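User: Run a structure prediction on this.
Assistant: Running it now.
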Amino acid sequence: MFALAAQITGAVATPEQPDVMAFVADSMLLMISGMVVVFMAAGFCMLESGLVRAKNAATISLKNITLFSIAGLTYYIVGYRLMYDGVDGGWFGTIGVWSPDPLDEPDGSLASAADWFFQMAFVATAASIVSGTLAERIKLGPFLLFIVVLTAVIYPITGAWKWGEGWLHVMGFQDFAGSTLVHSVGGWAALMGAIILGPRYGKYAPDGRIQKPMPGSNLPLAALGTFILWFGWFGFNGGSQLAAGTIEDVSAVGKILANTSLAAAAGVLAAFVMSYVIFKKPDLTLVLNGAIGGLVAITAGPLDPALWQGILVGAVGGVLVVVTVPLLDKFQIDDVVGAIPAHLVCGIWGTLIAAATTQADGLSIISQFGVQALGILVIGAFVAILSAAAWYALKLTIGLRPSVDDEIAGLDKTELGMEAYPDFYKG
C-alpha cells in the first residue's frame, strides 16, 4: 500500500506527511458510514411512527427530525470537544465550539471533519431511543429541552470515558461501537423518563394489568423502519473500525458486517420462537424489536467473535426483548415502542458478553468481565441520576404531560393542529 501511494502521488509518507492512500481510505470509510448512520434517523422515525397510534404519528415524526437537528448542533457547539479534546485519562474534555483542521494541513490519519461527521451521527441515536419510549404522552417543549441536556452533556461525558480515552479506556473497558455508550445511555435516559412521566392514560388498571391495548397505527411502516435500521447498522458498526487503509482493516470491516447481520437475523428468529412459546402466537412488534436487540447486543464487540458466536449473542438479545416487555408492564413502565428492552437490556448483555471474546492488554477474561460490569454500573448510575434530575426539574417547572383531554384527543391535534392521516383517521 505504501509503495502504491508513492507511485500515485510521487511522494513518500513521513511523520509530517501521512500516507495519502490510507488517509483517503480512512476518511472515506467514515464519511460513507456516517451517511449510512444518518439514514438510521429515518428508520427510527418510521419505526416509531408505525408503533404509535394514528393520532400521534405527526408529532413523533416532528420529534425525530427536530431531535436529530438539535443533536447535530449541540455536538458542534459543545459535545465533540467535551468528548474528545484533552480527556487524557480523565472524566471529560474541554468546553468550546469544535473547528476542523485546515484543509491543506491534515493532522492525523484522517480528515478531522470526517471524524466529527461520523461521531455526530451517533448522537441522535441515543436521543431517538428516548422519543420512542415516551411517545404519546409528553409535551413537545420539555422533551426537546431534555434532548439538549442529553446530547450536549450526558452523552459526550460518558463517551469521553471510553472513546475519548478517559478513565474507563485506561482500565480496559470494551465497547466497540456503543452497546453501552450509545444504546444503554439512551435506554437509561428513556427509563428514567418513563418512570417520572408515568404511563399513557388508560394503559393500566389499578391492579397493574394492561387495561387497554394500544396497538400501533401502521405495522408495515414499523417493519420498514426496522429494515432501515438494520441497513444503517452496517455503517454504525462497520465504520467504527475507523480505518480502511490496509488489507487487515478492510478484512475487519467485512467480518464486522457479517457478524452484525447474522446477529440481527438470530435476534429475529429467537424473538419469533420465544413470542410463540410465551404468547402462543408470533408477535410482529416483538420480532421487529428482536432484530434491534440482536443488533444492539453485537455492537459492543462485532469484530472478535467467530460468526457462530455472533449468532448466539444476537439470539440471546432477541430472547431478552421478549422476556423484558411483559416485565416492564408488570411494573407499569409504559414503553410505547419497546426501546428499553431492545436498547438498554440488550446493550447491557452485549457489553458484558464482549468480555468473552475481547480482552484488553494485560487483563484476563475474569478481570475483563469485572471491568465491563464496572463500566455498565457507573455509566448507568451517571446517566440515570442526571436524567432523573433533568426530567424532574422539567416536571416541576414547565410540566411534562399534556392534559388528559389533550392526550385522549391526540398530540397531533393539540400540539401541532394537524393530523398524520386526515383522510383515514376519524375520532
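The chain has one domain: 17-88+109-416.
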